[in-house]
Amino acid sequence: MAPAGPPLPPAIAAEWLDPKETAEILIYPGVKSHTFAPQKIINLEEGGAKIARRPSVDGNGATRRPYGWSRSSVSQEDEEERPKRKLIVLPEALVLGGTFDLSEGSIYIGKQARIEPNVFIKGPAIIGAKSTLRSGTYIRGDVIVGRNVVLRGEVKNSVIMDDAELCHPGYCGDSICGFKSHFGNQVTTANLSLFSHSNLLINVDGVTYDTGRKKAGVILGDGSQLGCSSVTDPCTLIQQNTVVYPLTRLRKGVYGSSLLIKNKPMEKGVLEIVPLRPSQQA
User: Fold this and answer.
1) Which one of 22, 57, 208, 211 is most buried, by most CB atoms within 10 A?
2) Where is this region: Disordered (predicted)?
3) What CATH number does the domain containing 134 carry?
């Protein structure tokens, strides 16, 4: 994934990491926030979040809207240990609506990003420049989204590289999706074994490796595609420029690059794996 642009000014970066108990919104000049509803910043404590003081403007022109934690359910000792969390929205981002949960981490929305109504983001999360989160997107559990990405479904604990498209309903959990990778409609990356919750094992060239993780989805190589309603088993690795046909179930393991993988419906449980023809390659 390409760098996310120049770092925040030192004063801003330092304050963002300052371990205090309040949540805060930073909205930079140029943000199209005419329909932005900061009251939708929520936490999961009883009583929810509330405005701590009137908005102010810092030396960088950013509008600040601090939110304190509910005093009814949080002790003073808890407040002193609770880190400050922020929603940071950079210039030219368009926030049309949505719900932003800062109870477990900050949320960063890059330049010219577009957040449509009915989006839910639970931090920590980073949304890269020029990315679009379509209505219905649900993000939770440590998510990094690169530049110029399109999302629609549920993304959990994953890294989505630049120019990737997960633009229809589906599930991407505990996964890494490479540059210009693509999910068709209703793709599911299974990330937990049905009958065992021990660490996932994977066999590569006759050698079995312990991943050290109970949950692992797919690692999808640059330019690879998963067709509509395809399902990947936990711990599936797909190399670059491989195309998986719709309605295909991939067992866990490593799949090569520049392959075409599809079901053989007349042969129960059989996958056909053949090299991509030059005309099929990007």
Assistant:
1) 22
2) 52-82
3) 2.160.10.10
Residue 48, domain member (yes or no)? no
Number of domains in the chain: 1
HSE toward the beta carbon, residue 229, CA cutoff 13 A: 3
Whole-model pTM: value is: 0.73
- Dump pLDDT digits (tens) for 94-139: 998 888 888 889 999 999 999 999 999 999 999 999 999 999 999 9
Domain that holds residue 130: 87-275
